[in-house]
Specification:
Elements: H1 3-14, H2 18-40, H3 43-59, H4 70-88, H5 108-129, H6 133-143, H7 149-156, H8 160-177, H9 179-193
Helix pairs in contact: 1-2, 2-3, 2-4, 3-4, 5-9, 6-8, 7-8
Length: 195
């Protein structure tokens, strides 16, 4: 989602748009369940925590005019609610040190970095899948299989110049498709270096 579209969605949400909330719910629900599960190791509780985080977004919509990132807000809300659950859940069963999920102690920055990396990887795969068939074949043979341009040309029965053309096309198309995600990753990476 582009920053412009996210800003538009936030504006619609603050104005009480149920349609905007449904878009946000559909887009982030699965991710929030996965994040909650990292903390609490319980699928049914993770679902409740994710739903609670999203409901909280709706309930606080009037206060979110200056919100910069839905993802970051929902990620932090889910993390906090997961930790609250762990803090307040009363269980009579003994929990040994081996039963504790180490991800519960992951900092916000590390968790957000992992999330960004996962999302970037997903978008890279989507962008590669959108390349024209022959361009995609050339790109994958080069990047995944490590073949030289000559080896690719031999395998696909095309000229080396055609291989070069497809690689140039693939890189240009991927650069364009992933521009926003790479910029977001770079901003986060640089900000983490300054800490």
């Amino acid at each position: 989602m582009t920053l412009h579209n996210e800003r538009k969605l936030i504006n619609q949400l603050t104005q009480g748009s149920e349609k905007a909330f449904k878009i946000i719910f559909d887009r982030y629900y699965t991710l929030l369940c996965a994040i909650a599960c990292h903390y609490v190791n319980d699928r049914s509780e993770s679902i409740l925590i994710a739903e609670d985080a999203l409901l909280s977004l709706w309930e606080k919509r009037d206060e979110l005019q200056d919100l910069r990132s839905l993802k970051a807000y929902l990620l932090i809300t889910t993390r906090n609610r997961s930790i609250d659950y762990l803090r307040t859940s009363h269980t009579e069963t003994w929990v040994g040190i081996d039963d504790i999920n180490p991800n519960c102690f992951t900092s916000d920055d590390v968790l957000f970095e992992q999330y960004l990396a996962t999302e970037l990887e997903l978008h890279i795969h989507q962008a590669i899948n959108q390349l024209p068939l022959e361009t995609r074949q050339v790109f994958l043979l080069s990047r995944n299989d490590g073949l030289s341009y000559t080896e690719i040309a031999d395998r696909l029965h095309i000229s080396v110049n055609t291989v070069k053309y497809h690689m140039k096309q693939a890189l240009a198309m991927l650069r364009k498709s992933l521009k926003e995600y790479l910029a977001l990753w770079l901003i986060f990476f640089l900000s983490s270096l300054q800490k």
